[in-house]
Specification:
- It contains 6 helices and 31 strands.
- Helix 1 packs across helix 2.
- It is mostly beta strands.
- It is globular and about 65 Å long.
Length: about 600
């Protein structure tokens, strides 16, 4: 559903300039199917711009000092209502043969506050710009005829403090299933390695949903395939039953001898093929890619992948890129990861939101570890639902080794509410995924705030506390360095050029915490916004084994003029070359 959309700017405050939306006598809340303005099926959109998605309309707006920080000082936000609402429409045909199937529209990400209509029928509203959402549109469709979907996107309010873009900036899918089908994000493959990795036990959970009007009896067939497509294990369950409207999980166990493991050096992927049969007829098929591997965080020794100690050398990555904003093509995701791997990086923190599925797919294929980060901490129903959807969507990715509940929550991390909310979120998430721990990137109050309850401590900027003292007080707690920086500069510039906003290389001073005095492993980390200047920080493990778990993560904002290791188009700058020597000490620069 990515192609042949129509787009036009609306208006955030003036209905007359918003194509008279919400001016009809009956609203879509008053009468079913009464979407008006561009939400109406018969709206005349012939003059609208033709586009494909992913699409970011913000990236083409002019710069202005009145623009919002999170929009890169573009002319968008509350000061620019004429540029802050975008309308999308797409016409599509549904054949008559699809009558009787379940049909869903799935959005991977829309920034932000998206309202959706199909043929004038209101489907729902999704506030956050960073989570996928889906609507069942089965009953609203014209079978054997034309249909139209309308999406109103309001980017007036900022959700982050870094470049966020605006629009349908990730893929859109039209999903067709039988009434009896595998539920959305309905499979989960967890692996356990035994006998020094010579045997793998796989637990496969499959959630099946019966949206039909009648009870359903069916067979469930599951096959595990290796990377060459050869079946290495299979199982069949017969005479299973779901009542109408019921959803249930079935669990299978598989034993794999001498498994090929997923690792950074050899990111070997397996595939689970799930099929549902009724009366011998295939009614649903679902494919899940996964990797067989084990992970462990030790409070004394650090991180282990497949039983082997691994030093995490990573980057914080925002999801924008020069020229395309947040509407990043899948091939560009892979290109960015390859650049990072070429300089010795082995991990990405998805600062500060769940990433595009395409990024995680590329990390799986290329062997890049991922700290998968939730956008906002909170224990209400909406915030927990966002956390749930992130975990359900991403839990089969072998690259994901750690969940982050959030980043630098200043309003709660230093008072009693931080530990309460952090505990609630950790407990909730652990009921969905027991195979990975949870962290939060904390910028202070490590000993008595949110950091006191985390399964894995996340240190943002070691100047904010004493790491050695924290480890002494919480000897049970593994730790990672989640964010750090101390240098700035513009690629190719060696003397300040204030008139053009360019700066020469300079250090901001190494942040000293505990016994960190020099660099054993030179690796940067930073948190950056669209207009920020970012840098690197050298640290030393000082021979203390527990600090081997605290390798820092670096920040890369590919659209920024001032960047820590790569400039806005992905070219290396000085710090990138220097950092490469830190990961490969024998390398000559």
């Amino acid at each position: 559903m990515d192609f042949d959309w129509l787009f036009a700017l609306g208006h955030a405050t003036d209905p007359a300039k918003d194509f008279n939306h919400l001016t009809a006598y009956f609203s879509y809340f008053a009468k079913a199917g009464y979407g008006d303005g561009p939400a109406a099926q018969n709206f005349d959109d012939r003059s609208w711009q033709k586009i494909d998605v992913p699409h970011d309309w913000c990236v083409n707006l002019p710069f202005t000092p009145r623009g919002g920080h999170s929009h890169g000082y573009r002319a968008i936000g509350i000061n620019f209502p004429e540029n802050s609402v975008g309308w999308y429409r797409k016409h599509f045909y549904i054949p008559a043969s699809d009558l009787g199937r379940k049909i869903f529209i799935h959005f991977e990400g829309v920034h932000r506050d998206a309202q959706v209509w199909v043929n004038g029928f209101y489907c729902g509203r999704n506030h956050s710009g960073y989570y996928g959402f889906e609507y069942d549109i089965t009953d609203y469709l014209n079978y054997g005829g034309n249909n139209v979907i309308a999406v109103r996107v309001d980017a007036s309010i900022e959700e982050g403090w870094y470049y966020e873009g605006a629009g349908i900036y990730r893929h859109v899918w039209l999903v067709k299933t039988s009434p009896l089908h595998v539920a959305r994000y309905g499979t989960f493959v967890a692996s356990q390695l035994l006998n020094q990795n010579r045997k793998a036990l796989l637990r496969v959970g499959t959630t099946i949903q019966n949206d039909g009007r009648n009870d359903a009896t069916f067979e469930l067939k599951e096959e595990i395939l290796n990377a060459q497509g050869k079946i290495i294990a299979q199982r069949e369950q017969q005479q299973l039953m779901l009542t109408a409207g019921q959803k249930c999980e079935w669990v299978s166990q598989f034993e794999i001898n001498d498994p090929q493991l997923w690792s950074i050096e050899n990111p070997y992927l397996h595939k689970l093929q799930t099929r549902i049969y009724q009366n011998g007829i295939l009614v649903d098929s679902y494919t899940t890619h996964f990797g067989i591997r084990s992970i462990r965080f030790s409070p004394d020794s650090g991180f282990f992948l497949n039983g082997q100690h691994v030093i995490i050398k990573g980057t914080n990555n925002h999801q924008d890129h020069a020229g395309v904003g947040t509407a990043i093509p899948d091939a560009l995701q892979e290109y960015r990861i390859k650049i990072l791997k070429s300089m010795g990086s082995n991990a990405i923190r998805t600062s500060h939101n769940p990433p595009s599925p395409a990024l995680l797919d590329a990390c799986d294929r290329l062997g890049m570890l991922v700290l998968d980060e939730n956008r906002l901490m909170g224990s209400n129903e909406e915030h927990l639902s966002y956390l749930r959807d992130m975990i359900l969507r991403d839990r089969n990715h072998p690259s994901v080794i750690l969940w982050s509940l959030g980043n630098e929550e200043w309003g709660i991390e230093c008072n009693e509410k931080g530990p309460r909310i952090g505990t609630t979120m950790q407990d909730y998430g652990s009921r969905i995924d027991t195979t990975r721990p949870f962290t939060t990137a904390c910028s202070g109050c490590w000993d008595n705030g949110t950091g006191s309850v985390l399964q894995v401590m996340g240190y943002n900027y070691i100047v904010h506390g004493k790491i050695d003292e924290h480890h002494r007080l919480f000897p049970w707690q593994p730790a990672v360095g989640t964010e750090e920086s101390n240098t700035i500069g513009t690629r190719g510039i060696y003397v300040d050029d204030e008139e053009n906003g360019r700066i020469g290389p300079r250090g901001l001073g190494t942040e000293i915490g505990g016994n960190f005095t020099a660099s054993d492993l030179f690796w940067p980390d930073c948190f950056t916004g669209q207009d920020s200047i970012t840098g690197a920080n050298p640290i030393r493990s000082n021979g203390l084994p527990y600090r081997r778990s605290m390798e820092l993560l670096t920040c890369v904002d590919f659209q920024k003029i001032f960047s820590i290791i790569l400039n806005r188009v992905g070219l290396r700058i000085r710090s990138c070359i220097l950092l490469h020597t830190g990961t490969e000490p024998d390398r000559t620069v």
